[in-house]
TrEMBL record:
The keyword Transcription does not apply. It holds the Pfam family Rer1. This is Protein RER1. One of its GO terms (cellular component) is Golgi membrane. Belongs to the RER1 family. The chain crosses the membrane at residues 37-56, 62-79, 146-164. Involved in the retrieval of endoplasmic reticulum membrane proteins from the early Golgi compartment. It is found in: Membrane. It comes from Podospora anserina (strain S / ATCC MYA-4624 / DSM 980 / FGSC 10383).
């Protein structure tokens, strides 16, 4: 009877420790939420360490390329609205025959810009990806020999083409994903 209870208690102990670590990690994430600038500076420093590791080790270009593609994908999701106006335009076109866009006049419905990928999730996913990539640079199995200038040129072309498409989409449906020039209200501004 003791032999049966021992694996269950060992499993229970592992589960309890995993839950405890998960709660502590979530508490750290919750504490870091309001410190946007510091979070991004830390991520930037981690990215510099990663690039320095790749540069000085002269390898792991595939890992760097995969990280670049993943970060580009995250950035595009960060720039896009949660509810794509092009899909709504197609729906409106089918219903009433007119193409819709975001409101531009006083009498149109106001819909605030909501990102498909919120800033905190963008930061968290980017930091986690950079950390994993940095760890991968310490294992020789990930050091696949490639001609790195081709990867750099391909990534630059991919970046330019996808950003051009994203900017055209932003212009066509008239949305700005950044809050540049947003009015700030203080106690005395009545």
């Amino acid at each position: 009877m003791d032999a049966v209870e021992e694996p269950m208690s060992a499993f229970g102990a592992v589960t309890a420790q995993t839950n405890k670590l998960s709660r502590q990690y979530q508490a750290l994430l919750d504490q870091s939420t309001p410190h946007t600038l510091y979070r991004w500076v830390g991520t930037g420093v981690l990215l510099v360490f990663f690039f320095a590791r790749v540069f000085f080790a002269q390898g792991w270009y595939i890992v760097a390329y995969a990280l670049g593609i993943y970060l580009l994908n995250l950035f595009l999701a960060f720039l896009q609205p949660k509810f794509d106006p092009s899909n709504e335009a197609l729906d409106n076109d089918m219903e009433d025959g007119s193409l819709g866009s975001l409101p531009t006049k006083q009498d149109e419905e106001f819909r605030p810009f909501i990102r498909r990928l919120p800033e905190f999730k963008f930061w968290h996913a980017a930091t986690r990806a950079i950390s994993i990539s940095f760890v991968c640079t310490w294992f020789e199995v990930f050091n696949v020999p490639v001609f790195w200038p081709v990867l750099v040129m391909y990534w630059i072309m991919l970046f330019v083409l996808t950003m051009r498409k994203q900017i055209q989409h932003m212009i066509k449906y008239r949305y700005v994903p950044f809050t540049v020039g947003k009015a700030r209200y203080t106690k005395n501004s009545s």
